[in-house]
Amino acid sequence: MATYLYKIGRFAFRRRHFVALLWVALLTLAGVGAASAPPAGNSSFSIPGTEAQRAFDLLEQRFPGMSADGATARVVFKAPEGQKMTDARNKAAVEKTVKELGSGSEVASVADPYTGKAVSRDGTIAYASVKYKVSGMELEDASRDALKESAGHARDAGLTVEIGGDALTTAPETGSSEVIGIAVAAVVLVITFGSLIAAGLPLLTAIIGVGIGVSTITALANPLDLGSTTSTLATMIGLAVGIDYALFIVSRYRAELAEGRDREEAAGRAVGTAGSAVVFAGLTVVIALVGLSVVNIPMLTKMGVAAAGTVAIAVLIALTMIPALLGYAGRTVKPAGEKSRLLGGARAAKKSGRPNMGTRWASFVVRRPVAVLLLGVVGLGAAAVPAASLELGLPDDGSQPVSTTQRRAYDLLSDGFGPGFNGPLTVVVDAKGSDDKKAAFAEVGDEIKGLENVVTVTPPAPNKAGDTAIITVVPKSQPSSATTEDLVHAIRGKSASITSATGATLLVTGATAMNIDVSQKLNDALLPYLALVVGLAFLLLIVVFRSVLVPLKAALGFLLSVLAALGAVVAVFQWGWLSGLMGVEQTGPVMSMMPIFMVGVVFGLAMDYEVFLVTRMREAYVHGENPGQAIVTGFRYSARVVTAAAVIMVAVFSGFIGSSEAMIKMIGFGLAIAVFFDAFIVRMAVVPAVLALLGRRAWWLPAWLDRALPDVDVEGEGLRTRPDPDEDRELVRA
Predict the structure, then answer these.
(1) 131: left (phi over 0), alpha (psi -120 to 50) or beta
(2) Residue 364: enclosing H or E segment and its boundaries?
(3) Residue 462 φ/ψ, nearest 5 degrees
(4) Distance separating alpha carbons of residues 677 and 185, to the nearest angstrom
(5) How far, rounded to the nearest angstrom, does the alpha carbon of residue 432 sit from its chain's CA centroid?
(6) Which site among 215, 315, 444, 616 is 20 to 30 Å from 208 CA-CA?
(7) 335 CB contacts (<8 Å, ≥6 apart)?
(8) Which distant-in-sequence residues (6+ apart) come within 8 Å of 601 by Cβ?
């Protein structure tokens, strides 16, 4: 592989005009496709194989006119102090608002509070339900504006008015902190390379790669039903790995220049060696992201595949466009150890005889491996302790900041109608196989009324055919509580007896039931997903390192870092530690998909640092150094670059903490802290300590397995014995 990539690197360096034009053309093509594509709608959220989804599909079939997937809004009214919502003046204001709400072209129906019994017992709170023909992301701005204006008119009459529901759903905003993350990356690159031009190359190529990836996602969003978070996550991951992959190749290029090679040869060798590590690191990330498909949640699968595509683009750009741009940069990119005059290049030579920090740190770890190992493991173990209290759920209006109208509407409804009113359960009774359908509907209602934690059970509402009915159940407890989950299981537990007695089947759906099913599905998929991703990556790393214990150590180190990161997420988003600093206004359960998504992404990124750092050690060991010396050599050449890459990745991910979307904020923080733990504790401390303790056993591989594995030559051994470089010019041209 190293020889093949070496030829690609030299070809890209020499044919730089062709390579640069090719990538610019791809960027332009993707941009035009994105600009001309129809706007994407709201990504459908389906959970195949769950009872909630089966019930939802049945509603779509048996109640075709109810717009089951349409947006909803609840306009909540509260009377002034000392007044009632039934007072003539307040009632007139509400009825006028209801009339205004029903005038929109996208409105399917509006329920009047006074005819629909939507007034609280004390008479101080009422609500009007608005149903739309389209989903929240498909609503026109005019419909949202009309909704807000109608509420404003009621406020002018002296009422307190708040709006809940998904009709106010908008695309997430990432905020200015994303730009700050990129700015931090730029500063780190300048310090690492000592050159503005060299620092700009990784940023430029990463932005081009993300531009192609996100533009392609935007162009395909409508036909492939991609949600708004898909492009945000692709940007987050693509930007981070794009900068890192380019950083490693540019760094190796400067090292080759420092050994006296000409620029074309240095570019070829940089792509042949560091590029090999980039390919395998990228493969681990792609495996982890595409592996999310085993969970069988379409939205998660699409997010993973889209992000994996962006990572693949980042790898290809690093292998081709970086050497092309190095050709354009010429002598402005200095050999390792040299800086541009603008950044103090004249002073660089004075430090040449002093061991760098990576060398000093590795030497210390090799001398004190047990102490370093214990300190690292204990520290990560302490950070992982909060993960034992992990509570999973999906966000609703109750998790919104208290400053939002959605949260205030949620609180008003809880005060007026009870905590469970914000998470009603929809029970679907399919009586198609029943002899007495009305009796079957009544039987289900009576059974549910006898259960604990039930406030209200509405009369069955049958469809036109009379073979299916909807019963709404309001629990006493709030939607995200364990008590409500127990009620869902209790209702479903009645299904067998109902079927036996009446021939009807009973299904429970609704947002609350869907959240419960999603959490269960993700929990059930976590171990199979771990086995698949870790197993495939383990096999890949055996090929790369030609060792059994090094990949095993890499996987165990990953588990340490991901558990510690989950602990940090629980501490901040569930317990509220440092929540003000992170902009978390409302604590609550961790999102159900967070653990499995973090496992997938963090595993891929963790293997990046493992490949980049340990490949240099393997290279030194293969070339005759003893295990301890190989560790020090690996750190001498790679520690500075790995540190810079980790700081950049932490900065980029941290930029997404400023997002208005709770999921993006949580993922940004989780990935940032996970990269910090993995890069600076696991890879920089635990890994060299374990390798020092294992000695030569770290590189042990059974003879039969050694013969069976392909020789991919990640270390670039084949390049050391190459003939004169001019001979390869003819091969590439041919």
Answers:
(1) beta
(2) helix 357-367
(3) -80, 160
(4) 18
(5) 42
(6) 616
(7) 254, 255, 257, 258
(8) 237, 285, 288, 289, 307, 671
Query: Phi/psi at 223 (nearest 5 deg)?
Result: -70, -30
Tell me if 126 sits within 8 A of 75, measured CB to CB: no
Query: What single string gives the DSSP state of each residue in 75-106?
Result: EEEEPPTT--TTSHHHHHHHHHHHHHHTTSTT
Task: Name the DSSP class of 402.
Answer: T
Could you tell me how many residues make up the chain? 734
Report pLDDT for 732: 42
Most confident among 60-69, 370-379, 460-469, 693-702 (mean pLDDT)? 370-379
CA distance 552 to 157: 68
- The owner of tokens 């007034």 is 119
Both structure tokens of 335: 């050999």
Query: Which residue, chain included where needed, has tokens 């990119």?
Result: 333
Q: What is the 3-state secondary structure (H, E, C) of 153-197?
A: HHHHCCCEEEEECHHHCCCCCCCCHHHHHHHHHHHHHHHHHCCHH
What single-letter DSSP state applies at residue 393?
E
Please enumerate in sequence order all residues whose Cβ is within 8 A of that of 545, keeping only pairs 6 or more positions apart, or say none: 551, 614, 615, 618, 699
Structure tokens at 628: 């301890």
Rounded Cα gap, residues 340 and 530, in angstroms = 46
Helix (H, G, I), strand (E, B) or coil at 427: strand
Q: How far apart are CA 544 and CA 398, in angstroms?
A: 48
**Amino acid code (one letter) for 193:** F
Are 170 and 74 in contact by the 8 Å Cβ rule? The answer is no
Provide CB contacts within 8 A for 4, sequence distance 6+. Answer: none
Region at 344 (left for phi over 0; alpha for psi -120 to 50; beta for the rest): left
Query: In sequence order, which residues have a C-beta less than 8 Å from that of residue 173 and are 6 or more positions away?
Result: 659, 660, 661
Amino acid sitting at position 671: L
Provide the 3-class DSSP secondary structure of residue 255: helix
CA dihedral 146, 149, 153, 155 (to 10 degrees): 130
Asked which of 15-19, 112-116, 333-337 is least confident by mean pLDDT, the reply is 333-337
Cα(328)–Cα(79) distance, integer angstroms: 70
pLDDT tens-digit series, residues 216-251: 888 887 777 676 667 877 887 888 888 888 988 988
What is the torsional sign of CA 658, 659, 661, 665?
Answer: negative
Q: What is the DSSP string of 414-435?
A: HHHH-GGGGS-EEEEEE-TT-S
Give the CA dihedral 109, 111, 115, 117, nearest 10 degrees.
Answer: 150
The closest of 336, 320, 311, 346 to 198, measured between CA atoms, is: 336
Q: CA 156 to CA 152: how far, in whole Å?
A: 6
* R_g over Cα of the chain: 30
Angle, helices 228-258 vs 263-290, to 10°: value is: 150
For range 91-112, the mean pLDDT: 87
The dihedral sign for the CA sequence 326, 329, 330, 335:
negative
**In DSSP terms, which residues pair with 215 in a beta bridge?**
none
Point out which residues pair with 74 in neighbouring strands.
129, 164
Query: Is the alpha carbon torsion for 289, 294, 295, 298 positive or negative?
Result: positive
| 408 within 8 A of 592, measured Cβ to Cβ | no
Give residue 123's region: left, alpha or beta (phi > 0; psi -120 to 50).
left
Contact indicator for 159, 78 with CB cutoff of 8 Å: yes
- What sign does the CA torsion over 226, 227, 231, 234 have? negative
Q: Which parts of 341-410 are beta strand (E)?
A: 392-393
3-state secondary structure of 463: coil
**In one letter, which amino acid is 479?**
P
Beta strands 425-430 and 590-591, pairing class: unpaired
CA distance 52 to 504: 17
pLDDT digits (tens, 9 = 90+) for 319-329: 999 999 999 98
Backbone φ and ψ for 65, nearest 5 degrees, come out as -95, 5
Nearest to 235 by CA among 255, 252, 220, 215: 215
